[in-house]
Amino acid sequence: MLLEIGKNIKRLRLESGLTQRLLAYRLRVSVQAVSKWERGAAYPDITLLPQIAMLFGVSIDRLFHDNDKKEIRLSDASQ
C-alpha cells in the first residue's frame, strides 16, 4: 500500500500540471524529496499528508489508494 502513494502523488501532480519543483516549493520540501516519493525510495512525512491531499483536492485515503484501479477491478469481477 505505501508503494502506491508515490505513484499516486506523481499521477496527481501531473494531472494538476505541476512540476516536481513547484510541488516541492508549495510543500516547503526539497525537489529531491518529491523525486524520492515518486520513485518509492522514501515516503512523505505523515504531517505532510493533509497538505498534499489539500493541494490536490483529494482525501488522504486517495493518496494511498488508486481509486481508478479499484473501479476497474470491480467491473472486471462482475463480468
Question: What is the structure about, briefly put?
Answer:
This protein is mostly helical and 79 residues long. It has helices spanning 2-15, 20-27, 31-39, 49-56, 60-64, 67-77.
Structural description of this entry:
The protein is mainly α and 79 residues long. Helices cover 70% and strands 0% of the residues. It contains six helices and no strands. The chain has helices spanning 2-15, 20-27, 31-39, 49-56, 60-64, 67-77. Helix 1 (2-15) crosses helix 3 and helix 2 packs across helix 3. The longest helix has 14 residues, at 2-15. The protein is globular, with a radius of gyration of 13 Å. The two termini are 26 Å apart. Residues 70-79 have low confidence and may be disordered.
